[in-house]
Amino acid sequence: MAAEDGTAEDGAAEDGAAEPGAAEPGMPGNPVTLTDPTMMRALAHQARIAIWSYLGLHGPATATECADIAGLSPSACSYHLRTLARYGFVEEDPDSAADGRERPWRARLLAFNMYEGPDVPPATQLAGRLLTENIRAAAEEVRARYVARHAEYPADWQAASGEVFSVAHVTAEELDRMRAQVLEVMAPYVRLDAASRPAGALPVRITLDLFPWFGPEQAQAAAEGMPEDGR
Q1: Closest C-alpha among 203, 189, 229, 9 to residue 114
Q2: Neighbours of 37 (CB within 10 A)
């Protein structure tokens, strides 16, 4: 699953048919732009984020299977699945049903961008922030669970996992290019199709934060060719 809050990555898709060989709109590598605040709020719910993420990671599942992940009853989970389906995040997948009584669901939209520019209506900005914060909270739960059980993992996973804190001194254009390059490196490893994964591959949560370590007045001064201290 991929959600990007800010400037769209290179090659972000508009709604419509995908080019031959390209990912379908709304899938990793071809994100769509969310502009409907009601749609954003529909996903901005911890149980729905958990269900949506599970379907994206593990493929089609029934409400009963998703209920265990979300900590809900199957009937409550069915309600949340129908809400997600109403806004295009998931859809029923009868082809994967083991029999006529099952109602599996699959993820339909997994990658999207959101914007907070001056032309974005306040209601859309608020909904986007709510969705971003709830997705971030879900990611933090994954991190906290790993930290709590860190010592139980095999040595190779302990060595490869963890956090990186650093800094880059860049222009806005360089930062945009760097983000695109990082996403390009990550893309081959998304592997939502289980058949494309090598033996031993397991899901790893990745959160990429690129925030200015300066105030807006420093950005304005830099644009005007002034030193960082404004003198």
Answers
A1: 9
A2: 20
In a domain, 41, yes or no: yes
Work out the number of other CB atoms within 10 angstroms of the CB of residue 157. Answer: 13
Q: What's the CATH code of the domain at 171? A: 1.10.10.10
How far, in Å, are 48, 86, 125, 172, 205 from residue 41 at the CA level? 10, 12, 11, 30, 23
Helix-helix angle 122-148:46-58, to 10 degrees: 70
Domain with 61 in it: 2-223
User: What gap in Å lies between CA 172 and CA 39, rounded to an integer?
Assistant: 30
In a domain, 134, yes or no: yes
Q: How many domains does the chain have?
A: 1
- In tens digits, what is the pLDDT along the chain, a chain of 231 residues? 555 544 333 333 333 344 555 778 999 889 999 999 999 999 999 999 999 999 999 999 999 999 999 999 999 999 999 999 999 999 999 988 888 778 999 999 999 999 888 899 999 999 999 999 999 999 999 999 999 999 999 999 999 999 999 999 999 999 999 999 999 999 999 999 999 999 999 999 999 999 999 999 999 998 888 665 555
